[in-house]
UniProtKB/TrEMBL annotation:
This is FMN dependent NADH:quinone oxidoreductase. It comes from the Bacteria. It is an enzyme of class 1 (oxidoreductase). Belongs to the azoreductase type 1 family. Its EC number is 1.6.5.-, 1.7.1.17. Its cofactor is FMN. InterPro entries: Flavodoxin_fold, Flavoprotein-like_sf, FMN-dep_NADH:Q_OxRdtase_AzoR1, NADH:quinone_OxRdtase_FMN_depd. HAMAP family: Azoreductase_type1. One of its GO terms (molecular function) is oxidoreductase activity, acting on NAD(P)H, quinone or similar compound as acceptor. It catalyses: 2 a quinone + NADH + H(+) = 2 a 1,4-benzosemiquinone + NAD(+); N,N-dimethyl-1,4-phenylenediamine + anthranilate + 2 NAD(+) = 2-(4-dimethylaminophenyl)diazenylbenzoate + 2 NADH + 2 H(+).
Length: 201
């Protein structure tokens, strides 16, 4: 990681206190900073909710940028900001609590606002191509009973796919899964964080 590295940390857990994904994401960012104290961190907490994509948003997004009305530019303003944050980041740390086998609605809203044709991916005659290559992503996953990356985990697999669709293919999963069955998995995830950041340094 260079001295000008930028880390984007995204929290999605509905819980502020006691959230495993928030705790482990904080720990991971702290470890990355210990390896590179000059890195800049931007935190984006989506748990309070983001606007969902609606007809007006879709119309604005598919209008040529040069022809967008002031209202359309305003409609896309938050999405533009989120895309800019994503583009600027060298490293992503995304907290992914598994809710009912999938990701929280707030995190899905973030995905919908940043996965934009011509902005984070483009269509070609050979299929879609991601525009955000060269980034590193960490998915900090927590669940009560769902085994991470199993056939019933539609959260981790979805996030890996959508990041790859936008060109981010270097993705590491740090899982504290099935905590209702084994609370020790949180400590195991913490050890993995330190091992990963030690080797990266």
């Amino acid at each position: 990681m260079s001295n000008t590295a930028r880390i984007l940390k995204i929290d999605a857990s509905a819980r502020k206190a006691g959230s495993v994904t928030r705790q482990l994401s904080d720990e991971l960012v702290a470890s990355l900073l210990s390896a590179n104290p000059q890195a800049k961190v931007l935190e984006r907490d989506v748990a309070h909710g983001l606007p969902v994509v609606d007809e007006a948003w879709i119309g604005a997004n598919f209008t040529d940028p040069a022809e967008r009305t002031p209202d359309q530019r305003l409609k896309l303003a938050l999405s533009d900001t989120l895309v800019s944050e994503l583009r600027a980041a060298d490293t992503l740390v995304i907290g992914v609590p598994i809710y009912n086998f999938g990701i929280p609605a707030s995190l899905k809203a973030w995905v919908d606002l940043v996965a934009r044709a011509r902005e984070t991916f483009r269509y070609t005659e050979n299929g879609p191509v991601g525009l955000l290559d060269g980034k590193k992503a960490y998915l900090v996953v927590a669940s009560g009973g769902t085994e991470a990356e199993s056939a019933i985990d539609f959260a981790t697999t979805y996030m890996k796919h959508v990041l790859g669709f936008m060109g981010i293919t270097d993705v590491t999963v740090v899982a504290a899964d099935q905590l209702m069955l084994d609370t020790g998995r949180k400590d195991a995830a913490s050890h993995k964080i330190h091992d990963l950041t030690r080797s990266a340094a």
